[in-house]
Amino acid sequence: MLSCRTSLYKTAKRKKNNKIKNKRKNRNVSKNQIPISEKQESSDPEEADTEEGFSLKTSAPSHSHGVQPLGNLYLTPSSHNSRNTGLGNLQTLTDELVLEILGLLGGTHLGVLATVSKSFYVFCDHEPLWKNLVLENLIDGFLYNGSWKYTYIAACNPSFDVSSIRSSGLRVRDFYSDYLFQSWLCANLEMKPEWLERDNIPRRKGISIEEFVLHFEEPNKPVLLEGCLDNWVALEKWDRDFLVKLCGDVKFSVGPVEMKLDDYFKYSDQAREERPLYLFDPKFAEKVPQLGLDYEVPVYFREDLFGVLGNERPDYRWIIIGPAGSGSSFHIDPNSTSAWNAVIKGSKKWVLFPPDVVPPGVHPSPDGTEVACPVSIIEWFMNFYGATKEWKKKPIECVCKAGEVIFVPNGWWHLVINLEDSIAITQNFASRMNLLNVLDFLNRPNASTLVSGTRDRVNLYEKFRNTIEASFPGTIDQLVLKAEEKKAQQKKISFWDSVTDSKVGAFKFSF
User: Fold this and answer.
1) Of 391, 429, 377, which Cα lies nearest the Cα of 408?
2) Where is this region: Disordered (predicted)?
3) Can you give the pTM of this predicted structure?
């Protein structure tokens, strides 16, 4: 978990000007606090420049209910934390456990419990609790109403005027909680410039298919390709207004719910949260056929052997729409496939690690069925990104902009965050270069839990292998033979190695 006393705190640079010192003293700003409020409150450019640390989004609200990071408690004369007094005997529980328990309650019970004390009021008002209630109970879609709590209340009680309670939030003094404060902080932080400056991915434009296969697909290395989308209708037409008009009342997958595009855009306009909902729909072309006609697969990725399965193939293509801050935390693409991701509008920050390097802060289970990682993408950047600068194997990074395509080789860990409102198309595929990896993955003992994108997980291996054999006789045997030859070649001792070994042996014998 992110710790506000350690990872979040940044040492503030202080000027010798006594007036500025006094201002900071009055605000209880110390070297152990997060230097964010000064940048928001100060109108003096010289004073604002005295801080190094995190910048808040211009639309960031003051923290809900006045919750402060725990480090501030040690600077107050009273050393009183109203969080504890309001919880009574439950104060010994961690914030996470308190919220875990509250997550078992419904909206009515949360509302009642919020009247018990100021502390329970703060905890019961925690937005993720209400977000879960909305996503669990309003699976057919919802109209976002400025906050998840108001959204739930308005949906369950349409006659109730939510605006009447919108400005009645209670401010609690001397409430200190790292966990609650970090959620607000991660939701409102801007990406730091140093998180975006590293760009070490190979970039290519106009290369041949043979060059792509030789230098990137076969050695399993990522590349950013330019100029591949120049003939896409989507690149010219796809914007918010066009898509809303084209798609009408069609609903798309947004996490666990289905939403109309217009409703989703209204949500994304208002959302200020740590993990914004991401529109990620694998059936978009079936729902709105014109969407599938407005783009074509770049020439480098047209060999997709899963195509032999026709309608029985696993999910393989998605339209992706999301606001700034939305994205995907570290993962490896399903079924050992490779992928390409094309940005149509906006821009995305990518961080990729090769298959043999697990990203810092990420803990996959031994069987690969689960991956534990930080709660949010911003949290990963705050706590773990800096460590990668010292690594021998540094991640591959880039910002992929509109009109550009990134190739993500199979097995690579990758994280993606939208830097602005973005629209993209992505597809996963299996070519000859990674067919054996895919077959091996589908044939694992725990395939029933590993395989995704299809209802028939158990039989997918046999079905896919048999269809490949029928469609491309001898292909699998040829690929296996080639792989064995390559493996033997790698193990073969070179002439110079053999000479060195013989010298060592002679040296030992002489003694």
Assistant:
1) 429
2) 1-75
3) 0.83
